[in-house]
Amino acid sequence: MAEPASRLCARFSEEPVSQRISIIGAGIAGIACAYEFARRGCAVTIVEKRAAAGRGCSWHAGGMLAPWCECESAEPIIGELGRESLAFWRDHFADTVSNGTLVVAPRRDLPDLQRFARRTQAHIWLDKDALGRLEPALSGRFGQGLFFDGEAHLDPRAALSALVSRLNVDFGVSIHFGGEPAPADWTLDCRGLDARMDLQDLRGVKGEMLMVRSPEVEFSRPIRLLHPRIPVYIVPRGGGVYMIGATMIENADGGGVTVRSALELLNAAYTLHPGFAEAEIIETGSGLRPAFPDNLPRLRPRGRTLHVNGFYRHGFLLAPAMARRAADFLLEGKEYPEVMD
Length: 341
Ligand SMILES: Cc1cc2nc3c(=O)[nH]c(=O)nc-3n(C[C@H](O)[C@H](O)[C@H](O)COP(=O)(O)OP(=O)(O)OC[C@H]3O[C@@H](n4cnc5c(N)ncnc54)[C@H](O)[C@@H]3O)c2cc1C
What we know:
This protein is an alpha/beta fold. It has helices spanning 5-14, 28-39, 67-70, 76-92, 110-119, 128-134, 156-171, 259-272, 315-332, and strands spanning 20-24, 43-48, 64-65, 101-104, 124-127, 144-148, 152-153, 175-177, 186-189, 203-213, 223-225, 232-238, 241-245, 280-291, 298-302, 305-309. Helix 2 crosses helix 9 (315-332) and helix 4 (76-92) packs across helix 9 (315-332). The radius of gyration is 20 Å and the shape is globular. Residues 1-17 have low confidence and may be disordered. The site of flavin-adenine dinucleotide has 39 residues, from helix 2, strand 2, strand 10, strand 14 and helix 9.
């Protein structure tokens, strides 16, 4: 039975705060929490059931840090948490690329681009020439585009591994692969979708992605193509490598990338730039995004365990801000009703 947050907080004023934190799960939620608690002086331990960190859903993320674009369909709180996390990534991961996001649509889908503009903020309209100057590989291909110059992107695997190594070097925290969580004063449950036996309103939203190597195409920022079925995005990873994502399939149980999804993702990439026809497919993959019914993240206390979950399609965009709230809650008794039940 969940203990109400107010009762937990009442205890903070009576008891000295305990500093031993045990984290279950080394995805972006767990690693961001470990980093935040370690920075605040806690003795942190992490267990991960897989053989390496970040091999769950986090492995497949695009790495877009797009708090304004995401608010086209997400609640304003995602934008707020996202902007806070963006600042964290810029400060703590030097390879964060701050080149903004470009959104385009084929001429027939111009009304979709206009709708996207109405639902979002912090963008400017680009005409054909300005678009070509910003992203020369798209020169002459689209009549208009929306540019969100405050956004950024990163390589999620590199970012996660950088945090893991900072944890180790700066705070002496290493990950224990396999085994049981260490005894602690507080446990942070960051198991992603694997926590669904305990969080019964958690569901999996399957996301499929492809990685291609395409020396012929040169983009310097994530490009979103508004598309009637899959709103596709392409994120440059450097060296001619691009991540193409992502499908959104409700209540999925897993499985690999289907032929239908691969065809749709590749078709959309080809619509964006015909140079992708010659690209080499170097990886296909899919992950199950952990999501609550409203697609918002949660800190959910249960006794001496705090569940940090429901990051949906925003793990890298939200994790640093959610980790800060988790630490504020457990160490200082602050409450954040917008992300707590
Ligand atoms: C195709 C795709 C594209 C995406 N693109 C983006 C994007 O561009 N930007 C963005 O911000 N987000 C994106 N996301 C979303 C993001 O990947 C997720 O929100 C995020 O990975 C969720 O992180 P998590 O740590 O909660 O879960 P996970 O990454 O799944 O981590 C959970 C960890 O817990 C471990 N675990 C489970 N059970 C146990 C146990 N009993 N003991 C020990 N360890 C355990 C698992 O092995 C795993 O390592 C994307 C997702 C997908 C699928």
